[in-house]
Amino acid sequence: MMPTKQPEPRPTAKYRSQFRIYVDIMSVIQRESNEAKPTRILYGANLSHDRLVKYLEELKTLGVIQEIGTDEKVYSLTQKGIEFMNNFKRVESFASAFGFKI
Amino acid sequence: MVSGPSWFFGFGAFMEFIAFAIAIAIANQALKGYRLSKEKTLLYLNLSFVLIGAGLLVDGLASLIVFVTGAHRGFLYPFAVGYTIYFFAQVIAYGLLVYAYVYQAREIGAGPALIAAVPFLFFARNAVTELILIFLLVYIATQTGNNYSLNKGTNALLVFGAFVTLSIAHVFFLIFTVDRIFYPLAHLTQLLGFLLLLWMLLRVNRQK
Questions:
Q1: Count of structural domains within chain A
Q2: How confident is the model at residue B74 (pLDDT cuts 50, 70, 90)?
Q3: Which of residues 110-139 of B touch A (CB under 8 A)?
Q4: Average pLDDT over residues A13-32
Q5: Does residue A3 belong to any structural domain of this protein?
Q6: B39 — contact with chain A (CB < 8 Å)?
Q7: Which one of B38, B103, B200, B208 would you mutate to disrupt binding with A, by most A Cβ within 10 Å of its Cβ?
Q8: Taking the domains of chain B in order of start, what are their residue ranges?
Q9: Long-range CB contacts (< 8 A, 24+ apart) of B147-156?
């Protein structure tokens, strides 16, 4: 289950959009062999720099991504993040079988 | 109510219990998806399969009572109650699924869709209720067929196949008064539909 900060946001359109952005960022990192630079994520998730920084911080707080590397920033999924993405793929596949998009 | 061959009651109940278990497994997966994504269509899917499962369980239990007591199910009050609950549950469940597809398409708002569903909920006669169920199932089968034509995935094909099979099952339930052999056929076809859904569920959960 996607870890959430307290208090948990209500399931509004805004939240869903945020959820989708989280998933997009994490998908880019996973696609890049679990080591992605901010520029890669920025293009892959189609975000502005400011929003990217904000979401990366949020994802770090949630414990699903971590910063690795010393010279330049590189992000990777944590074990929690990998588990979340595995669960998400199952749910997406299930919903897609019925024709529902998440 | 006219019923199927008496030799089939035990088998029918057994098949409904299997279908109940599959429906609950589908509902559980949909709930997991809703908790993860907060996507409302998955909540509707969950509620829909909970209702389908509840209907199957009640009808299966009613059939089992008839089977155990050895009485003819057509004359038993418990069966009549079970039968009514089963059909009401199914109509609401498939109505919810139709609503989920409409909701996703955003063609109409929530209010009109729910109001449109209300008149469907108060029929009790077998033929009429079955026709409503067939109508709802054909709509769902069409939607899942469209989905399959777009994504060509095996899971989408299994869901499409399941709803086509369930539609055929309800056609058999409708026409079993013509020949009682359609009653066991309807149960078998219904079970096949749920087994296709189980197959899809196993494929999804096997995915790494």
A1: 1
A2: low
A3: none
A4: 80
A5: no
A6: yes
A7: B38
A8: 6-202
A9: B147/A96, B147/A97, B147/A98, B147/A99, B151/A96, B153/A96, B153/A97, B154/B203, B155/A93, B155/A94, B155/A96, B155/A97, B155/B200, B155/B203, B155/B204, B156/A96, B156/A97, B156/A99
> Between chains, do B45 and A100 touch, taking CB under 8 Å as contact?
yes
How is chain A split among helix, strand and coil, in percent rounded to 5? Answer: 60, 10, 30
Contact of B36 with B45, CB cutoff 8 Å: no
Inform me whether the pLDDT recorded for B112 exceeds 50. no
> Which chain B residues are within 8 Å of A19, Cβ to Cβ?
37-38
Find residues 57-96 of chain B whose CB sits inside 8 Å of chain A. Answer: none
Complex ipTM value: 0.79
Rounded to the nearest 10 degrees, the angle between the axes of helix B182-206 and helix B9-37 is 30
A 69-88: CB under 8 A from B: 86-88
* pLDDT tens, position by position, B11-61: 888 888 999 999 999 999 999 999 988 888 899 999 999 999 998 898 888
Kindly report the CATH number assigned to the domain that includes residue A20.
1.10.10.10
Tell me which residue range forms the domain holding A39: 16-98
| Residue in this structure with the two tokens 């409302």, named with its chain if needed | B40
Tell me which chain A residue has its CA closest to the CA of residue B35: A1
Residues from chain A contacting residue B33 (CB–CB below 8 Å): 91, 94-95, 102
A55 in a domain, yes or no? yes
Mean pLDDT of A83-87: 91
Put simply, the answer to whether A98 touches B159 (Cβ < 8 Å) is yes
Tell me, yes or no, whether A90 lies in a domain.
yes
Contact of B207 with chain A, judged by CB distance below 8 Å, is answered with: yes
3.40.630, 1.20.1070, 1.10.287, 3.30.750: CATH of B6-202: 1.20.1070
Our CA-based measurement puts residue B61 at a distance from the nearest CA of chain A, in whole angstroms, of: 29
